[in-house]
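Case study 2.
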Amino acid sequence: MGLFSRGQQQPAMPQNIVDIMDFFGRSEFDPQGMSEEEARYKGTIEPMLFSLAQADPEMFLTELAQAVLPVGGWAAYGAEHLARSLLDSSVFQHPSYIALMDASLNFLRTSGVPPTRLNTYEWMHWVASGGTSDTWFLQRPTSAPGE
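Prediction:
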């Protein structure tokens, strides 16, 4: 057994990552609606996943997207926001990040969220994808997310 025979074990994606991202997405969208306990929990999410994201950003993005994209909704929104928070801009053209952004925007659109609630980078992605304020709404909104 050589000195270098054992590889350093990478941290693993939490099994409940979809639930974590769902919560993170909801709290990112409406931070004022959180209780103190929820705010404390939200404050642990980024530090908990930071080392995993930094160890291998592309793998992190790929695994995160594989976990949340089938679910979509707040989980996709949360994952997109978390990735943007933890990783540098070099990954913003990664296919998994783009898929998270597209799923996040699709969720917001179909939920009736007005485009004025988007961050600048979300709106820029929408416009770069050929979207306009006239094409934002697929149908007349019936209720906002969370209602």
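The chain has six helices and no strands.
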